[in-house]
């Protein structure tokens, strides 16, 4: 049975920034027959639940990993270190669990794949990946956005 890393909020854990979760029947169907490793990189990186909304500023997760962008809360507080630490912990969990694929929360500054919020906190989306998605991809783990979220 092939293991898959899944954002913990998609598995019903109330760990999103707003203290909610995003579990759905589509997610459960997507992981049927798979060993699931549930993980929240933001909580693992030391952030509380609930917490202030955060977005990528100056680029996407690949740029954060390269030191050219950062992650900031809507108050302006820089939480880049927490996001990078959480991404590293997610990669370690994926490796430990034998995961070759990840199903992550769309649009998130951690887990977003293909599209993320633009850093203006105005709900605008731009092409890019979150910090965790970028790190997993760089390490050969196929990252997919969750269906129906």
UniProtKB/TrEMBL annotation:
<protein>
    <recommendedName>
        <fullName>DUF523 domain-containing protein</fullName>
    </recommendedName>
</protein>
<dbReference type="Pfam" id="PF04463">
    <property type="entry name" value="2-thiour_desulf"/>
</dbReference>
<dbReference type="InterPro" id="IPR007553">
    <property type="entry name" value="2-thiour_desulf"/>
</dbReference>
